[in-house]
Amino acid sequence: MTVKERMLLESKAWVAEKLSLDKDYFEHLKRMPTPNILWIGSSDNLISIREVTNTEPGEIIVHRNIGAQVKTDDLSLMATVEHAIEVSNVQLIIVCGYSNCNGVKEVIRGVEERTYTHKWLDELFEIYDTHPGEFEQLSDVEKEKRLCEMSIKAQIVKLSSLDIVQKAWERGSSPELLGWYLDETSGIIKEIFSMRAKQSLKQVGSVV
Questions:
Q1: pLDDT on residue 11
Q2: Burial of 95 (0-12, 13-18, 19+ CB in 10 A)
Q3: Which pLDDT belongs to residue 200?
Q4: In contact, 194 and 111? CB cutoff 8 Å
Q5: Phi, psi (5° rounding) for residue 177?
Q6: What is the mean pLDDT of residues 111-133?
Q7: Strands 176-183 and 188-195
Q8: 3-class SS at 124?
Q9: Per the omega criterion (within 30 degrees of 0), is the bond before 35 cis?
Q10: Interhelix angle for 102-109 vs 122-130, to 10°?
Q11: What local confidence, expressed as pLDDT, does residue 203 receive?
Q12: To the nearest whole number, what is the mean pLDDT of the chain?
């Protein structure tokens, strides 16, 4: 059996299982409430977001990329943020980094250069190269965790400076911005940094 055939077969099994538990399952999906959370995560995270947060279908909008980066020239992400705020009126935007992230490993371990990947991770390289004192005494695993934490804060700060977010805050509305770190060895999520309306960038300081 090919991978494609197995996936299609598993899809049919999933449908049968859902209908056996609730014959109106797919009708219910049509009436799901508007999502109130936007989750920006890493494309190679192996843990299901719905499982780790114990949420239902429709509660979370998910956007993934390598290293959970926020880039203003990423039209896909910018459109997702705009739609989440202006249409869904989300209460939370979460940037979640995690242990064992391949994007972070590329920066720490200096693996074989790949043009598009390295260009995408340029801001991670910049954080790592401009804060050597943060990493000198750490093992590779500890470096990965520290770089991921610093990147998470940087992404939250970038989100807070977006016109879309600033205008929502000026209206006195959501979203609150949350920077989380998911430890895949334990499944535990730790909050690294957060921002909300009326909190200025001057109060934030650097990514350290």
A1: 96
A2: buried
A3: 58
A4: no
A5: -105, 125
A6: 88
A7: antiparallel
A8: helix
A9: no
A10: 50
A11: 54
A12: 90
Whole-structure pTM value: 0.89
What are 199-203's contacts with CB under 8 Å, separation 24+? 199/160, 201/157, 201/160, 201/161
- For residue range 72-85, list pLDDT tens digits in order: 999 999 999 999 99
The percent of the chain in helix, strand and coil, each rounded to the nearest 5, is 50, 15, 35
pLDDT at 199: 67
Q: Is 75 helix (H, G, I), strand (E, B) or coil?
A: helix
- Close Cβ partners of 152 (under 8 Å, ≥ 6 residues apart): 68, 95, 96, 97, 179, 180, 181, 192, 193
125: exposed, middle or buried (Cβ count in 10 Å: 0-12, 13-18, 19+): middle
Per-residue DSSP letter, 60: E
- Cβ–Cβ under 8 Å, residues 189 and 181: yes
C-alpha separations of 73 from 9, 43, 64, 81, 136 in Å:
39, 18, 15, 13, 32
Top-tier CATH class for 34-203 = alpha beta
Task: Count other Cβ atoms within 10 Å, centred on residue 174.
Answer: 18
**Spans of all domains in the chain:** 1-31, 34-203
- Residue 70 burial (CB < 10 Å; 0-12/13-18/19+)? buried
How far is CA 54 from each of CA 48, 49, 51, 59, rounded to the nearest angstrom? 10, 8, 5, 10
Q: In the chain, where does DSSP find H-type helix?
A: 3-21, 25-30, 49-53, 75-86, 102-109, 115-120, 122-130, 140-161, 163-170
Q: What was the pLDDT predicted at 185? A: 85
